[in-house]
Every structure is written in structure tokens, then in C-alpha cells.
Design goal:
The complex is a heterodimer of chains A (106) and B (112).
Chain A lengths: L3 E4 L2 E5 L4 E7 L5 E7 L5 E7 L2 E5 L2 E6 L4 E6 L8 E8 L3 E3 L3 E6 L1
Parallel strand pairs in A: 2-11
Antiparallel strand pairs in A: 1-3, 3-8, 4-5, 4-9, 6-7, 7-8, 9-10, 9-11
Chain B lengths: L2 E5 L2 E4 L5 E8 L5 E7 L5 E9 L2 E4 L6 E6 L2 E6 L8 E8 L6 E3 L3 E5 L1
Parallel strand pairs in B: 2-11
Antiparallel strand pairs in B: 1-3, 3-8, 4-5, 4-9, 5-6, 7-8, 9-10, 9-11
The chains are: A mainly beta (106), B mainly beta (112).
Chain lengths: 106, 112
């Protein structure tokens, strides 16, 4: 069993739709990260969370420490949001989910 | 500000040839350094991490090795590449607190 599970694995949405990506983890953590990997391979950090909720533009990330669960929401999705979104947790080491491949269709 | 470099960006190598990928970090001291591999359609797999010069921890037994000859330099090597070594290799660094990792641009390796 993986320490970090993401769902869905693949997601296709129409432009403008509200998108949710889920992440569950099974280890103790000090922080949870949402990463975005562009088609070229580069990875950028979107959020680092240890509690509650963070918002950056159209992106919202939430975490429930008791339930060991986090969600990434994208409001008013746009084709440029198409990427792989990776959930990662920082415990005694870093654990990564396998990613959610998002395609937003114009 | 801190930056992380990897080279080469892409590499095509024949089976059985050696490999050396280099990663350097600027703007920070004594970083934790990591090598990851991302195979096609799969998640990131931690290969090696280092908390200091000459200190290497291996997470997965494999055909690869890592070295840290300087504080901000991390090298991934192989004496003889296998087809299964193909993938996207990412270097990352973090501070001692390990709360956030910063990724390099990656090296895409194709072994033929």
C-alpha cells in the first residue's frame, strides 16, 4: 500500500468547470505539498499546508489532519491548468502520490 | 535566492554505457539533497538522499549510485545502464527542516 493515495488518476474537464483532486495519506506528517508538473517535466510547488486552508488565485487547498486527507480545488478551470498534480507529504521522509493527470478542454 | 541546476537536460545512451548526471544548488548551505526517478506513467520514486558531504542513503536497490563530493553538488551515476534505467530524473533540495522541497528541471534519460 502506498503511503500517499491520490484520486482520480486521470481527469478531463471542460473549461470553466470546478475541479477537485483528492489525496489521502497514512503516515505522520509535518506538512503536505501540492505540486504541479508541466508537460515538459518541470515541477513547481503550489502549496505547503500543515492545517486548514490556503488559496492562491483560482487554486484552493485544504487539509484535514485528523482524517489524513487533503483536497486541491481549481475554480473556473482553464486549458493552461492542464498538468499533472502531485500530492506529497513530509514525514520522516518525503512520500509522493502517483499524480493526477488533468486535461482541461476549451 | 536559491536555484538548482541539473544537466544534461536530455540524454540518449546505449545499454551498458556509463552514466553521470549532475545536480548543483546555489544560494543555500548544507542542503538535504535528493535524487528521484519518474518512470513513464508512474509517480516519483526516491532513489537517494544525502544530509551532508559523503553521506548517501539509498532507498531502492538498483543499478545506480550517488555521490556528494561537495556540499551543494549531487551526482547520480551508473557503471552500466540498463533499459529499465530510462526515465525522468529529478534532483531536489530541502532545508534541514525538510518541510519543502525544491526541484530541478530534470534530466530525461533514454537508454536504447
Amino acid at each position: 500500500k502506498n503511503e500517499v493515495e491520490q484520486s482520480p488518476q486521470n481527469l478531463t474537464a471542460q473549461e470553466g468547470e470546478f475541479i477537485t483532486i483528492n489525496c489521502s495519506y497514512s503516515v505522520g506528517i509535518s506538512a503536505l505539498h501540492w505540486l504541479q508538473q508541466h508537460p515538459g517535466g518541470g515541477i513547481v510547488s503550489l502549496f505547503m499546508l500543515s492545517s486548514g486552508k490556503k488559496k492562491h488565485g483560482r487554486l484552493i487547498a485544504t487539509i484535514n489532519i485528523q482524517e489524513k486527507h487533503s483536497s486541491l480545488h481549481i475554480t473556473a478551470s482553464h486549458p493552461r491548468d492542464s498538468a499533472v498534480y502531485i500530492c506529497a507529504v513530509a514525514g520522516n521522509q518525503f512520500y509522493f502520490g502517483t499524480g493526477t493527470s488533468l486535461t482541461v478542454i476549451p | 535566492s536559491q536555484t538548482i541546476h541539473q544537466w544534461p537536460a536530455t540524454l540518449v545512451q546505449p545499454v551498458g554505457s556509463p552514466l553521470s548526471l549532475e545536480c548543483t544548488v546555489e544560494g543555500t548551505s548544507n542542503p538535504n539533497l535528493y535524487w528521484y526517478r519518474q518512470a513513464a506513467g508512474r509517480g516519483l520514486q526516491l532513489l537517494f538522499y544525502s544530509v551532508g558531504i559523503g553521506q548517501i542513503s539509498s532507498e531502492v536497490p538498483q543499478n545506480l549510485s550517488a555521490s556528494r563530493p561537495q556540499d551543494r553538488q549531487f551526482i547520480l551515476s551508473s557503471k552500466k545502464l540498463l533499459l529499465s534505467d530510462s526515465g525522468f530524473y529529478l534532483c531536489a533540495w530541502s532545508g534541514v527542516a525538510r518541510e519543502t522541497q525544491y526541484f530541478g528541471p530534470g534530466t530525461r534519460l533514454l537508454v536504447l
